[in-house]
Amino acid sequence: MLSNLSNILTLSRIIVIPIVVGFIAWGTPCSSAFACIVFILAGVTDYLDGKIARARQQLSDFGRMFDPIADKLLVGACLMVLVGYMRIPYAGLWPATIILCREILVSGMREYLVGYKTILPVTRLAKWKTGFQMTAIGFLIAGDKTSILLGLPWLPIAAIGAVLLWIAAALTLITGWDYLTVGIQHIEK
Is the pTM of this model over 0.85? Predict the structure, then answer.
């Protein structure tokens, strides 16, 4: 289980959650920049763990179970702390809520459908949704204070993150609806 690199990368996403959340909460430009870097590295592990598992033919039940859990924990924790510290501008509570509700819905459906020996495969649009979510959250973690730290005070990092979060929320609704209709079709059989 923990002897293969892909599973270690998956677990690393869970392990870094308190680090990212703590540095976001600290709220200084440097801590925000550090939280953003750690979050980006965690996002890269999301890409790498599956790629490595497939390349090394080390697909495992552990990875299949914990990879989506790690993603949802990381995204959910970051969204909650960003909302809690009012770091999401432009009514960002709404897209954050949409994203969290969809993630819980899809996870619940996947768990339920296991009893029917049915899986909901990840769609290409869902991968795009994840990419927009991760990018948006990265921008929101960095925030405008980081643009000042970088010597780019004119760059509206938080606004870019907010726009990307709304795009992610739209993709979240579309993919959530797709998964819901597929899930219901399997239940009705």
Answer: yes
